Inverse folding.
């Protein structure tokens, strides 16, 4: 299948220090890639680089075969940021309408898509309340609904399930799997290890480097681990050991 995202040798520096260090990734249509890593590892920076909001110092990023930033390509990305960028004085519905119109969705389509994505995140009954009255979890769910309403072929989700109850989390993951089955490409960052198990490919990011990369089964075999959590811990220990030995892996 065609690559939705192709990243080659990406290095991003802040104040001359590499925050992302020679990263490569191929995300195919129909695939979910999970990016996991400790706080400060560079997950959000990686997503921001894909959005063209952070410029690579070295390397190349192509989305659907085109170098970014590119306006036409932006319209093909449904994006959910880590902090909820919502208009607090507007209702959930008005926020969905506003962001949907930015994506160039026609009014008729938007009405239909909004209903579906509000159902997915279980917000149908709260759509006419103002955001100022939403809880943190409700804001996260609305941000996710906005990303899904775009009905874009590439979906980038930065920590989409923080503050979301386990049952709804499961429903959201079922929906993501369904969207992938329809050919969408999805990149999701997460701290939740059992979510990583539901991805086709998992990338472990530490200190700006992919220290392990593969399917959940491959990673568990490689690290002789029974869970992705154990892989994560063992990969971290390995990295620390190689640092202590002065080997820059
Ligand atoms: N605009 C910036 N200028 C300078 N440093 C930055 C900037 N943005 C991020 N950083 C630094 O880059 C590193 C990676 O940050 P990033 O937000 O990508 O990590 P993260 O893995 O998403 O963390 P978290 O899980 O806590 O959100 C951190 O050390 C952070 O302080």
């Amino acid at each position: 299948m065609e690559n939705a995202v192709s990243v080659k040798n990406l290095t991003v520096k802040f104040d001359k220090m590499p925050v992302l260090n020679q990263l490569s990734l191929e995300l195919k249509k129909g695939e979910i890639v999970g990016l996991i890593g400790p706080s400060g590892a560079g997950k959000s920076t990686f997503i921001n680089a894909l959005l063209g909001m952070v410029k690579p110092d070295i390397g190349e990023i192509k989305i659907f075969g085109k170098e970014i930033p590119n306006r036409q390509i932006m319209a093909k990305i449904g994006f959910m940021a880590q902090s909820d960028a919502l208009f607090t004085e507007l209702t959930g519905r008005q926020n969905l309408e506003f962001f949907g119109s930015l994506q160039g969705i026609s009014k008729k389509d938007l009405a239909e898509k909004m209903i579906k994505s509000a159902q997915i995140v279980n917000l149908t009954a709260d759509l006419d309340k103002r955001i100022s009255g939403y809880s943190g979890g409700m804001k996260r769910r609305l941000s996710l609904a906005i990303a899904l309403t775009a009905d874009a072929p590439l979906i980038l989700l930065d920590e989409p399930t923080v503050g979301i109850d386990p049952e709804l989390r499961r429903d959201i993951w079922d929906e993501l799997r369904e969207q992938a089955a329809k050919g969408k490409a999805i990149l999701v960052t997460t701290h939740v290890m059992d979510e990583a198990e539901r991805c086709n490919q998992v990338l472990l990011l530490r200190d700006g480097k992919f220290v392990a990369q593969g399917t959940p089964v491959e990673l568990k075999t490689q690290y002789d681990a029974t869970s992705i959590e154990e892989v994560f811990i063992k990969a971290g220990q390995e990295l620390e050991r190689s640092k202590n030995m002065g080997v820059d892996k």
About this structure: Strands lie at 3-14, 17-28, 32-36, 58-63, 66-67, 77-80, 154-158, 185-190, 201-206, 209-214. The chain is about 40% helix and 25% strand.
